[in-house]
């Protein structure tokens, strides 16, 4: 095999292994007095350009459209390195082994996990498309709180 093909296969393999794109929604119970949206951006220590763009575009969208909700803690944003031991439990809870983006909607003490990883990777390098769709998804969930 030519060296360029070997390198291409290796890079693609690493990318696919580092990016967890499971599509699941899960519900669990927490404190019933809590109603908010947690935006969780998981990543590994070594990040690709798209992984960095997902974080930047998520932060951009939240700062631009949800400043009030962030200040009121109605929306929170966490960037979580899954390779750090202290993040092991939350990464396991969301089944995040690499880059993943979740909305954790907490309504009357019940958590609903919305996996946006596929969306994030498809639109990660297009700030306008990413921001528009993420804003829409958050707006939809805010209406349910």
Broad shape: globular
Order of strands, widest sheet: 1-5-4-2-3
The low-confidence parts are 8-29
**Terminal residue distance:** 56 Å
Helix content: 40-55%
Question: How would a textbook summarize the main sheet?
Answer: 5 strands, mixed
**Average pLDDT, all residues:** 85
* Beta fraction: 15-25%
Task: Give the total of beta strands.
Answer: 5
Number of helices: 6
Radius of gyration: 16 Å
Structural class: alpha+beta
Instruction: Give the SSE order as H and E letters.
Output: HEEHHEHEEHH
Describe the structure.
By secondary structure, the protein is an alpha+beta fold. Helices cover 46% and strands 23% of the residues. The chain is built from six helices and five strands. The protein has helices at 3-18, 49-65, 67-71, 88-93, 117-123, 127-142, and strands at 25-29, 36-43, 75-81, 100-107, 110-115. It has a five-stranded mixed sheet. Strand 4 and strand 5 form a beta hairpin. Helix 2 (49-65) packs across helix 6. It is globular, with a radius of gyration of 16 Å.
């Amino acid at each position: 095999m030519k060296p360029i093909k070997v390198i291409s296969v290796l890079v693609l393999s690493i990318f696919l292994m580092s990016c967890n794109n499971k599509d699941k929604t899960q519900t669990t119970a927490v404190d019933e007095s809590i109603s908010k949206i947690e935006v969780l951006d998981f990543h590994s220590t070594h990040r690709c350009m798209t992984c960095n763009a997902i974080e930047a575009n998520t932060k951009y969208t939240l700062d631009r459209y949800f400043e009030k909700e962030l200040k009121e803690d109605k929306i929170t944003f966490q960037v979580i390195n899954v390779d750090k031991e202290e993040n092991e439990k939350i990464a396991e809870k969301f089944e995040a082994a690499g880059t993943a983006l979740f909305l954790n909607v907490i309504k009357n003490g019940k958590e609903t996990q919305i996996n946006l990883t596929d969306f994030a990777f498809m639109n990660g390098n297009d700030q306008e498309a990413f921001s528009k769709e993420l804003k829409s998804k958050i707006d939809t969930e805010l209406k349910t709180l």
